[in-house]
């Protein structure tokens, strides 16, 4: 029998952030991970996909240089092996960095599968040798246990993913070569990003979403501007459409799609990418041994959201195991890990406000939002006032020439003015780098007058944010 203060099961963003913070607070921490620390985000999601999307942006830049700016540049070819080698190097360096942080902090990382055996006990079956093997067996956690086992891609009935013709978001980056054509099933953030990536790399792309618009959880104007941008790039977008049938062929997949209107369509594509969401991973955790169970969607719901603590005192949950309002985003998982570590250390951290967590889609164009959409604000009984400005209304937006917008949703104040800002929504180039300001605006309950007194640099894309707030504050400058 081994003892420690905290046992963390799962070494993804939520798990390792819990471990690092708890160790910094002087607690003895054991982190059990059956694969690689860093989890999906580092090895199969956030980091490798954004590396690839950066390469895609460079490819798009060559076409823009030639077609818009008179730079006589041509793309000879994409060296796939060189591109993926750079991506893999970025992932490997980040992985070594996380491992180094954990080692320096004194976190004991055990490679193995962990399962609950009680409310304070865990059994670890090591997969490694040496120190890992010695750490196997029964562990007791004096302070508590943290569940951070993450998620896996959801799949649909039909051909099983084979990593070549039918792929998921976990394996599409590592599928062989560049497909000439791809059907992306799912118009959420993951599907939109991969549709954008494949189009930049020269593939014919069809994007299919069952809801009536892309990014259905975002503001309707975000969906509209995003769809316009994707269609302008040559991506076929089918919303309100469903996949009826898929059949694998020797060199691809034959799919039948029923659009919102009209007869079913049959398409032959080289690759089918299924991006219909992710499901929490709890297999092997043996939750029942501690008196826990998943909800009807497979999540482990906390009984106390302020502490992210389950109905079993001392067992906490972070990351993709959490149901909404948690967002299943890596940066939210980091914050959840910090909160749980500080709670287990006896501190009283401020509960998380998920409404102030930024949401970003790294497609071309990008989207970034924080707070409530216009529809959500109205549904919650707010009397709202909105203001929308095209990015091309400012000089830097014209330079980029990619369209986009800034939209602010605010509470209507007395006299018809604008009061507390409820949401900010951005579409356009590099808006992922602009949303942090909006997070502070929404998180600090600012109103447009608070923002309007601060000067945005000219000429920048962020200037559009300043212009929207100037107008809402009754001090409009360039906006007509």
From TrEMBL:
Entry protein name: Dihydrolipoyl dehydrogenase
Source taxonomy: Bacteria, Bacillati, Actinomycetota, Actinomycetes, Kitasatosporales
A single MF term (Gene Ontology): dihydrolipoyl dehydrogenase (NADH) activity
Domain FAD/NAD(P)-binding: 5-337
Gene Ontology BP term (one): 2-oxoglutarate metabolic process
Similarity comment text for this entry: Belongs to the class-I pyridine nucleotide-disulfide oxidoreductase family.
Compartment annotation: Cytoplasm
Xref: NCBIfam families: lipoamide_DH
């Amino acid at each position: 029998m081994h003892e420690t203060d905290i046992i963390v099961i799962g070494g993804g963003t939520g798990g390792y952030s819990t471990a690092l913070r708890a160790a910094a607070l002087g607690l003895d921490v054991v982190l059990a991970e059956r694969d690689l620390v860093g989890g999906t985000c580092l090895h199969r999601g956030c980091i490798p996909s954004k590396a690839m999307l950066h390469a895609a942006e460079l490819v798009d830049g060559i076409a823009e240089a030639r077609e818009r700016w008179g730079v006589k540049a041509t793309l000879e070819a994409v060296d796939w092996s060189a591109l993926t080698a750079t991506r893999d190097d970025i992932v490997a360096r980040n992985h070594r960095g996380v491992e180094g942080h954990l080692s320096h902090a004194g976190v004991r990382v055990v490679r193995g599968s962990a399962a609950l055996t009680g409310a304070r006990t865990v059994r670890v079956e090591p997969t490694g040798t040496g120190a890992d093997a010695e750490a196997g067996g029964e562990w007791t956690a004096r302070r508590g246990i943290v569940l951070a086992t993450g998620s896996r891609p959801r799949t649909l009935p039909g051909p099983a993913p084979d990593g070549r013709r039918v792929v998921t978001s976990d394996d599409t980056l590592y599928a062989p070569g560049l497909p000439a054509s791809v059907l992306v099933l799912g118009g959420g953030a993951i599907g939109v990003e991969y549709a954008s990536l494949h189009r930049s790399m020269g593939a014919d792309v069809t994007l299919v979403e069952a809801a009536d618009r892309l990014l259905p959880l975002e503001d309707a104007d975000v969906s509209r501007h995003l769809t316009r941008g994707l269609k302008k790039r040559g991506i076929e977008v089918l919303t309100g459409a469903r996949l009826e049938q898929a059949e694998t062929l020797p060199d691809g997949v034959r799919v039948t799609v029923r659009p919102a209107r009209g007869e079913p369509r049959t398409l032959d594509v080289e690759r089918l990418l299924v991006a219909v969401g992710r499901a929490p991973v709890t297999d092997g955790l043996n939750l029942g041994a501690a008196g826990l169970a998943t909800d009807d969607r497979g999540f482990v719901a906390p009984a106390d959201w302020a502490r992210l603590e389950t109905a079993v005192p001392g067992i906490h949950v972070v990351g993709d195991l959490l149901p909404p309002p948690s967002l299943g985003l890596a940066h939210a998982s980091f914050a959840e890990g910090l909160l749980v570590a500080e709670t287990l250390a006896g501190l009283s951290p401020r509960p998380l406000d998920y409404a102030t967590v930024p949401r970003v889609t790294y497609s071309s164009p990008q989207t970034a939002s924080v707070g409530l959409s216009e529809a959500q604000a109205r549904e919650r009984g707010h009397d709202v006032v909105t203001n929308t400005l095209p990015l091309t209304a400012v000089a830097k937006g014209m330079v980029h020439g990619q369209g986009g917008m800034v939209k602010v949703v605010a509470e209507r104040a007395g006299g018809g003015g604008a009061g507390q800002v409820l949401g900010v929504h951005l579409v356009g180039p590099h808006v992922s780098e602009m949303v942090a300001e909006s997070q502070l605006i929404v998180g600090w309950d600012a109103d447009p007058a608070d923002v309007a007194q601060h000067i945005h640099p000219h000429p920048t894309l962020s200037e559009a944010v300043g212009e929207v707030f100037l107008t809402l504050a009754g001090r409009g400058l360039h906006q007509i």
